[in-house]
Amino acid sequence: MSEPECTAADLPAPAADLVPHRPPVRLIEHLLEVHAAAGRASATVRADSLHVNADGSLDPTAHLELMGQTVAAAKGWRDRQQGRPPRVGFLAGATGMDCLDTARIGDQLTIAIKQTGTFGAFAMIEGQVHHLDRRIADGQLKLWLPPSHQAPSDWPNHLPCNSADHVVPRPPFFGAPSSLPSDREPAKR
Questions:
Q1: I need a surface site. Which of 15, 23, 74, 138 has the fewest CB within 10 A?
Q2: For the segment 57-91, what is each residue's pLDDT rounded down to a tens digit?
């Protein structure tokens, strides 16, 4: 089966329909393009974003999240084109992340991603974040994509963190507020 090509009829597509992220965590707004191993999305830096610093600048950690969400949207679009619900994927690592400039509240960003390789269920992705014609960040992501036969609705029963008899300990948080749930409490969603 050949890779579905994007058409004017279905792109740009709202990111809310393609990714599991919900506000305030979802940063991308629209999937703009999808190609065989690449995609492009858009985002606006918003004042209420969890990634905006007190001075109105976008925290550099947001660039990694923007790239990851763009991958998720492109994969979600491909899954929808093939008649299945979007699959869940997980960030396994990042290398070579360079922040070249700063984005600020109100800036319109374009995020470009390209899959450069695979190794089993892992995908290697190159990403860039642009504001206007200026590249402000780039880097490489490593993602783990579960087998396509496992639907997202199957996951809660297979994840150890949701099992009553097995608790995955959390790493310590430096300066974390005491209101975080303890290691024995299930996370509230």
A1: 23
A2: 999 999 999 999 999 999 989 888 888 887 788 99
